[in-house]
Amino acid sequence: MYGTEVIDPDVPLNAAESADYDAALAGSAAAGERPAHASFDALIEADQRVEPRDDMPSAYRKTLIRQIAQHAHSEVIGMQPEGSWVTRAPSLRRKAILIAKVQDEAGHGLYLYSAAETLGIDRAELLDMLHDGRQKYSSIFNYPTLTWADCGAIGWLVDGAAIMNQVPLCRCSYGPYARAMIRVCKEESFHQRQGFEILWNLMRGTDAQRAMAQDAANRWWGPALMMFGPHDTGDAAQGGGHTEQSMAWGIKRFSNDDLRQRFVDMMVLQADRLGLTLPDPDLRWNEERGHWDFGAIDWDEFRRVLKGDGPCNAERISHRRRAHDEGAWVREAATAYAAKQAARATSATRSTDRLHAAEPAA
Ligand code: BYC
Asked: Which pTM does this prediction carry?
């Protein structure tokens, strides 16, 4: 199911199905064997994992909180574009799959907020920072889902880009983030296949369905390339980004540009299989580089979206705030329940202690 009937199951469709992912799993197991009380620099030098109780420079902690929180916010805000199609999915099967996918994104948010909390920050504080604009979420979720084909394009392109960026994060130097990424990538891999399969079916449907799929690919291609972040290599790099330091710390394993190139190389072939044309007249194979060349990215648009002026920024954040306010009673109930459970556990321990105290010594 989900695309295996339309593509060769032995050929990786995305980065989570590649040898990179298997290597990350193997690396994850090996990173468990580390010297006790190793210093931060020694851990990074030996490519070992930094764990929550280890000493770490405050700038490392700050960078991780920023990136993991932004990632968590993206997963949660990212539920909205597809969530709006749950009631309009074209069949019961599509509806069930879409609900499962959107629910997975909520789960990813939870793993990531939990990973961020191991760095000593509370998720309530992170959500406050999202709601008042002090923290970002991915630019990609500020674009509208106009037709059903947009759900296909999100799965294929947005999840495809997300996995390309996240498989290397399975080898991130910070243990809780790296471990969260292993599961996230497996789930994203299914998401990408379902997007591919939606577009595959539309492309084998009527002229109107093919046109709808092509229109969605046209609108999502450019924003998907922006997901990898600003240029950070060669002449195009403007400096001031985080890549160099994050790579030195083993948080990022590749530059934004390297990952974007890998994504383009993978997607050109898939677009061809789907029968879609990628909206870039400059796309051509470069024999010398062994990669696909592609046209300039509209960085003005990227900056506008980051500043809050994308097509859906206001809608996304006001919906998020409303959901947060309306969910206040759930958080209160959960807190009250947890307090009750804790009180019961304490009184049970006290009774056991009293019982033991009353027993005659053997
Ligand atoms: N959007 O130096 P750079 C998903 C910012 S959700 C907004 O390269 P860094 C899904 C960046 O924050 C998956 N901002 O930064 C969910 C920085 O800002 P400041 C989302 C961006 O952190 C539902 C500045 O630009 N994935 O899969 O080293 C449905 C300079 O950038 C963006 C993640 O979050 C952007 N696209 O690298 C479907 C992955 N790009 O601090 C799917 C985890 C850059 O200077 N995050 N900026 O103000 C990362 O890997 C890295 O944070 C990034 C950026 C590669 C995104």
From this structure: 0.91
Residues 234, 236, 240, 246, CA torsion sign? negative
For residue 185, the one-letter residue type is: C
Q: Ligand 1 centre and the CA of 153: distance in Å?
A: 20
* Token reading at 30: 């090996």
For residue 63, the ligand 1 atom closest to its alpha carbon is 22
Residue type, position 271, single letter = A
Are the CB atoms for 221 and 280 separated by under 8 Å? yes
pLDDT digits (tens, 9 = 90+) for 274-322: 999 999 999 999 999 999 999 999 999 999 999 999 999 999 999 999 9
Going by CA atoms, what residue is nearest to atom 17 of ligand 1?
241
User: Which residue type occupies 317?
Assistant: I
**DSSP per-residue string spanning 203-219:** HTS-HHHHHHHHHHHHH
Distance 50 CA to ligand 1 centre (A): 22
Residue 232 C-alpha to ligand 1 middle, in angstroms?
A: 13
Q: Is the CB of 241 under 6 A from ligand 1?
A: yes
Tell me, what DSSP letter sits at residue 283? Answer: -
- Which residue type sits at 266? M
Cβ(80) – ligand 1 distance below 6 Å: no
d(CA 280, CA 179): 36
Q: CA triplet 92, 96, 98: central angle to 5 degrees?
A: 115
Answer for the pair 2, 194: CB distance below 8 angstroms, yes or no: yes
Of the candidates 233, 173, 234, 235, which has an alpha carbon nearest to the alpha carbon of residue 243? 233
C-alpha 195 to ligand 1 mean position (Å):
22
